[in-house]
Amino acid sequence: MSTYVEDNRKVTTHRLFEMKQRGEKISMLTAYDYSMASIIDQAGMDVILVGDSASNVMAGNVTTLPMTLDQMIYHGKSVVRGVKRSLVVVDMPFGTYQGNSKEALASAVRIMKETHADCIKLEGGSEVRESIERILCAGIPVMGHLGLTPQSINKFGTYAVRAREEAEAQKLIEDAHLLEELGCFALVLEKIPADLATRVAQELTIPVIGIGAGGGVDGQVLVMHDMLGINKNFSPRFLRRYADLNTIITEAVQQYIQDVKSHDFPNEKEQY
Ligand code: KIV
Question: Is-catalytic flag, 190?
Fold first, then answer.
């Protein structure tokens, strides 16, 4: 399969803005380690998100809440080492930016200094305004995240589609405008009605990247384990699976077990 990459320069926040202006869709995928990040980068991904979904797909937790700053920094460093072209965004984990804007800045500075990533992402709108302002004042680019914000799962009580009701949709629109006014360079909208996401993308000048938010936004993001079919127990309507790695890996591992048990591996050529 050919790649859509015509420009091998490093992707910057400004280039994402230009992509939106010329109507070029932005591709974004999560990664958590060096090897996968380098494959995804070389395949031509515009943005790699070191998501706190690492909590689910790497650590096996039920929610993203247990993720720590040290763990995000570990994943961020590993990803950055594998990337040459993609813009690398690191999620700020739960509890490191919501309460106190000075602590938020300290957390963001640690991420930037220790991982060498390009920018950070955090969840929420007006509630985290002070934290966003302080982080931006330090020159750290911020990507916002509205709609289904998994760090608030205990408040929502469900992973169902958000902002179906007028009041919540209105708050989301106001928050999206606020994030743009504050200076966020992009916004993720997760699991909201497609019409609402399209409206937000049309009203904002910054790129809006959707997950379960329809095709009217400026780009798409998926969790790598879901789209590669590593994770078989997660099948939301918005997910398209591009591979069945669960089956491919299982068959390869079973073949290896069989080869070891049957004395087939290693053969004459596979030894010194
Ligand atoms: O942590 C994550 O993977 C995310 C995406 C779902 C956008 O925030």
Answer: yes
